[in-house]
Design a protein that fits this description.
Pseudouridine synthase; 3 domains; nine-stranded mixed sheet; four-stranded antiparallel sheet; 15 strands; alpha+beta; 27% strand; 293 residues
Amino acid sequence: MKLIVNESDIRIDKYLSQNTDFSRETITKMLKENYITVNEKEVKPSYKTKENDIVIIDESFIKEQNIIPTKIDLDIIYEDEYLMVINKPTGLVVHPGNGHYDNTLVNGLKYYTDNLSDISGEERVGIVHRLDKDTSGLMLVAKTNMVHELLADDFKHKRIYREYYALLKGVFPTNSAEVEAPIGRSKTAFNKMEVRSDGKWAKTNLKVLKRYTKYTLVSLVLETGRTHQIRVHMKYIGYPVFNDPVYDKEVIPSFGQFLHSKTLRFTHPVTKTKLEFTTELPEVFQEFLNKLD
């Protein structure tokens, strides 16, 4: 991971904890164990940043951590010998990485079963696609490598339908829209993505479900699956996802962005059965909508 510093005279451990997903404690540990360099030199956590410092973070640090099976209450919507459909709560990190090593969905899956695909490595067993920490809702888990590969191919060729519900800030003016804008990693804050000309093509389809005085409830269907795609696209068009701690300053403590993976529809890669699942909005999300009504 490469990061170009854009602020001066801030402790490096503090700066990196604010501009990556790593905790300050993890940053300190990585600095002491030489997993982080500044301008190709080892530095102490107390090092004060200079504008345009080049920071390199060796992410192999996570690969050296033990993935400990942990008992987590999993909301399993569907399960057979090949795959699972999980209803992920907001606040749950999907897999270890970026400062989160314990109590992730992967830790919970490893406790629940030994039958998980491992072609993506031990830290991502079973994970075919992911949801952001504070995005709730439906996601697929593969139990075998064959099924993992088949599902990954289905995602790649847009054979899996994914619909999200989101509450946007502002009153969206039209009943539908197509947002097509390339997305790439921010050069200044590594925990952020942004629309940029050299990014990867991304497209999101939007449909208005209900308008409120200051908000709009929308349905969003992805044609691509870029990191933070919905959040970045909504911010880009001027209607950010409400309560987004990264892309919007107005937040409700202890709850993340109002973004929910509502519907998942696909053909089972082995049995060829057509499957469709839908799940209700999280309680905090629904109660907020009720107050708006």
